[in-house]
């Protein structure tokens, strides 16, 4: 996939990237600011807006009953695909909740668009269940964004991304703006939900040590290209690319005893998704 921003002069933000996400796996995507992580994620989910242009490439979702050619989707098909099959927790999502409508109205919106057959009471029951799944009290359904802490807002965004039980969740720096303790709690929550619902995750962050803990595989991106993809273990113990080595050595905590990191909750996937 190649994506450019048609400004003057044009910026080629994603250069000939080829990436496979396996069913149920956690794929970490790391790289410096501006290397094209968000642009790639938007490209996969057909969220690019002008001046961004998908210059070439294909995106295929392999489903049990056939392949979906994501680039060819239009109108209703595309709307259904976006939240039903692949959902996204946006970068800065903590501030992405609509400030003037309640959490309930925002969750109900997702269901009204994608599950028009659901009754109000069903929507309510499922919304309450979703909040509890992400560790937010169901009484918070009637709250507005400003009444919630940053961590709670982020949990609500995750609940929304989970609402339709997608196969793939793209999380673009979902915990970056949170303090370390809340980050950990939310990460644990994401890992638990993934075990429970078995969706695949593309987890985007600058935080390579965190990716080493949670990912099955890690892709390292630099200047719009993926320079290395490998299992988390190999990225850590046998990095191939110079940039990967630099990235690893830029985290002081990794300079201690090697091989000592703890991986949690990451199961291996095998089928392509
Ligand atoms: N709307 C835009 N117009 C022009 N160039 C853009 C636009 N959005 C992004 N870019 C450029 O595309 C490149 C990739 O940006 P992108 O936001 O995908 O990077 P990123 O890896 O997600 O960075 P970060 O870690 O800071 O979120 C950068 O060079 C950026 O300046
Ligand atoms: Mg980004």
TrEMBL record:
Keywords in alphabetical order: ATP-binding, Nucleotide-binding
Gene3D superfamilies: P-loop containing nucleotide triphosphate hydrolases (3.40.50.300)
Superkingdom, natural source: Bacteria
UniProt cross-references to CDD domains, sorted A to Z: ABC_NikE_OppD_transporters (cd03257)
Domain ABC transporter: 2-248
This protein's record includes keyword ATP-binding: yes
Entry keyword ATP-binding: yes
Any one GO molecular function term: ATP binding
The protein, known as: ABC transporter ATP-binding protein
Species whose genome carries this gene: Bowdeniella nasicola
């Amino acid at each position: 996939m190649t994506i450019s921003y048609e400004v003057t002069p044009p910026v080629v933000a994603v250069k000939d990237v080829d990436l496979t996400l396996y069913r149920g796996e956690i794929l970490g995507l790391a790289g410096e600011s501006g290397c094209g992580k968000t642009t790639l994620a938007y490209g996969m989910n057909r969220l690019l807006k002008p001046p961004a242009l998908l210059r070439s490439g294909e995106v295929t979702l392999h489903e049990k009953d056939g392949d979906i050619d994501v680039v060819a989707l239009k109108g209703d098909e595309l709307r259904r695909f976006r939240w039903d099959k692949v959902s996204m927790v946006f970068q800065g999502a903590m501030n992405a909740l609509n400030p003037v409508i309640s959490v309930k109205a925002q969750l109900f919106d997702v269901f009204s668009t994608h599950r028009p057959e659901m009754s109000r009471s069903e929507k309510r029951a499922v919304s309450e269940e979703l909040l509890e799944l992400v560790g937010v009290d169901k009484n918070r359904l009637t709250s507005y964004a400003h009444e919630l802490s940053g961590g709670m807002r982020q949990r609500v965004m995750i609940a929304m991304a989970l609402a339709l039980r997608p196969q793939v969740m793209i999380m673009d720096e979902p915990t970056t703006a949170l303090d370390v303790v809340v980050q950990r709690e939310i990460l644990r929550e994401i890992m638990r939900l993934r075990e429970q619902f078995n969706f695949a995750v593309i987890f985007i962050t600058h935080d390579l040590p965190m990716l080493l803990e949670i990912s099955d595989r890690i892709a390292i991106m630099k200047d719009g290209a993926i320079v290395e993809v490998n299992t988390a273990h190999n990225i850590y113990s046998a990095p191939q690319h110079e940039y990967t080595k630099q990235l690893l050595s830029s985290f002081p905590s990794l300079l201690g005893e090697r091989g000592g990191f703890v991986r949690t909750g990451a199961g291996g996937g095998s089928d392509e998704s």
